[in-house]
Amino acid sequence: MEPDVVVRRQEALAAARLRMQEELNAQAERYKEKQRQLEEEKRRQKIAMWESMQEGKSYKGNLKLNQNKVESGASTSSAVPKSKPNKKPLRGGGYNPLSGEGGGTCSWRPGRRGPSAGG
């Protein structure tokens, strides 16, 4: 092989590697900035939650309201919430599945102790 060709090929490889490394560094910087913004937003939400908790408000409710405001700002559709009818409980108040009373037809009983094969 000719030395000129080898040198040019190595220079081209080095230039390509440098270009790829710069592109990778730029992507990493964009990712770091995005993560920094997400951390800042989480910090702001925690501060708002703490302040509303100090005021005696429902901080979880405020957080959901803030998220709903952002979502409703993005979508202009107005949804009317439906009122739920009063639901009766599925079972009576005295139902306890561990007591074995008041339940259905199947009652669980522990298996026999000892080896499963009879000897």
Automatic annotation (TrEMBL):
Q: Which UniProt keywords apply?
A: Coiled coil, Cytoplasm, Endoplasmic reticulum, Membrane, Selenocysteine, Transmembrane, Transmembrane helix
| InterPro entries reported in the protein's UniProt record | Selenoprotein_S (IPR009703)
Biased region (Gly residues) positions are: 91-105
Q: Specify the domain of life of the species encoding this protein.
A: Eukaryota
Q: Which residues form a coiled coil?
A: 17-48
Any single Gene Ontology cellular-component annotation: Derlin-1-VIMP complex
- Please note every region of biased composition (Polar residues): 64-80
Start and end residues of each stretch annotated as Disordered: 51-119
* The keyword Kinase appears for this protein: no
| Gene Ontology biological process | endoplasmic reticulum unfolded protein response; retrograde protein transport, ER to cytosol
The membrane topology term of the UniProt record is:
Single-pass membrane protein
**Where can this protein be found?**
Cytoplasm; Endoplasmic reticulum membrane
Task: Please give the family membership noted in the entry.
Answer: Belongs to the selenoprotein S family.
Fetch the PANTHER family from UniProt: SELENOPROTEIN S (PTHR28621:SF1)
Q: What is this protein called?
A: Selenoprotein S
* Organism in which the protein naturally occurs: Patagioenas fasciata monilis
State the encoding gene.
VIMP
